Amino acid sequence: MAKKYSLKFWIIFWTVSAVLLASWYVFLEVRKGGLGSLTGVIDYLPMSAEKKGEAKFFADLESYVMQKDDVEKTFLILFQNDMELRPGGGYIGSFGILKMKNGEVEELHTHDLSNFDARIPDGIEPPYPMKDTLRIASWKMRDSNWSPDFPTNALKADEFYHLGQGGENFDGIVAINSDVLRSFLKVTGPVEVPGFPGIYNSENAALNLEYQVERAFLKQGISLGERKSIMNELAKVIIEKAKALSAGDKLKLAGEIINNLNDKNVQLYFKNEILQGRVTDAKWGGQVDQNWNDDYLMMIDANLGSLKSDYYIKRSFDYTVDFSKDTPVAKLKITYNHSAKTKDWMTKNYLTYLRVYVPKGSWLTGSNNLGDIRFGEDLNKKYFGSLFDVKVGEAKTVEFDYDLPVSITPEAYKLLIQRQSGVHDLAGKITVIGKNGEKEEHAFDSAGDYVFSK
Known about the structure:
The protein is an alpha+beta fold. It contains eleven helices and 19 strands. It folds into two domains: 10-282, Aminopeptidase (3-Layer(aba) Sandwich); 295-453, Sandwich (Immunoglobulin-like). Helix 1 (10-35) packs parallel to helix 9 (229-243).
C-alpha cells in the first residue's frame, strides 16, 4: 500500500512559495524605484570581481524573467524540505506553477503532491531502497529528486508531472529548499502574523511553523481543516515587508538569493540551452561535475525515516589519501551526531541511505559500521551505498577504505568535494600523505562545493 504523508509540514513549502513571489515583487520595486536593471549598479558595488560576475549573471536571469516581450514564461517550482533530506535537497511535499509575462506574475498556484501523485500511473519501479523502507510500490513525483544531480532530477520531475496529466510545458524548473525562508527573514526582519501568537524570525520560523500546524492549532481552538490558515496570513506579511524594503535592502535581498544559489538552496534548470549553459558555468544548476578528472568526493544522504530528523543531524568527515603505497589509498570517515534528546513528533532514530561518490575506477577494500554495501556507476563516478541508522542522542562514525585509480598522483594533486543540496554545513579534515610519508593537513568547512589543491 502506498505510504500516506501528513499535511503537517507543507506549511513550510507554501510559505516558501510566497517568498518566491515576493522576490519577483522585489525586482519590480527595484526598477520602479529608479534603479533600472540590476546590471547597471553592480559595477559600483563593493565586491570582488568573482562576486560581480555572479551578480551580473543573476541580473541576466532577472532580465530574462522581467523582459517585456509579450511572451508567457512558465516555471515548475519544487519545494524541498531539507529537514527531511533527499539526494537532491529535501523531500518534495508540494510543487508550484509560476506564470510570468512582461515582468509581471500572472499566476502562482501550489499543489499538494500526495493528491497529484495519485494521478500518476503505478508501475514505475522505485530506486533502491525506497520500496522496502518507505513501503511504496511505485515511484512518484514526491520522490523524483533521487539523484544528486539537479538536471537529472528536473527532467524526472517534468516527466512525472506529465505522467500525472499535467498540461503545462515548462520553460524552466526551480528547486527551492526551506532554508530560503530563513534567508528572506534575515533581510525583512521578524514578522508577526495577525491572529496567531509569536514572532517569526530567521532563526525560529521553520520550527515555529512546524509546531503551529502540529500542536499549537489544537490549543488555539483552530479546526483541523483550518490549521493551515496561517499560510495565507504569513504570505501577506512577507510580501508587504519585501515590497517596503529600501533600495539598499532590496540589493541585500538579491545578495541573499545569490548566496542561496551558491549554497544550492536554489537550483535552476532552463529548457533554453544557452541560458542553461550559463547556469552550468555559474554552478547554479546543482549539477554533478562529470568532467572532473582528479580526486573526487560527494557524500549523499537520503533520509528514509519519514520524519524531520535532519534538523538534528550534525555531520563531519575525515578524508585521508595516502600516496606512500604502491596504489593511492583513500580512507573516509563520516560522523553523524544525532543531537536530539528524545523521540517525538518531529524526530526518531535517523535512517539514511548513504551513497559516497568517488572517482570512476576506485575499488572498495574495507568498511566499518555499515550495513550491506551496494556498488554502482552513475554520473561518470563510482559510488558505494549503504543503509544504516543513527540512534537519538548518539553519534556514529562510518568508514570506507578504497583504492583510487593510479591516474591520481601526488604531483599537482587536486580534490573536488561537492556538497549535497540541503546539507547546510559540512566540516571536516583533509590529509594528504606523500610518497615519503610526509603529511599535509587542511581543515574543511564550507557551505558550497570546494576544491583542495597542493
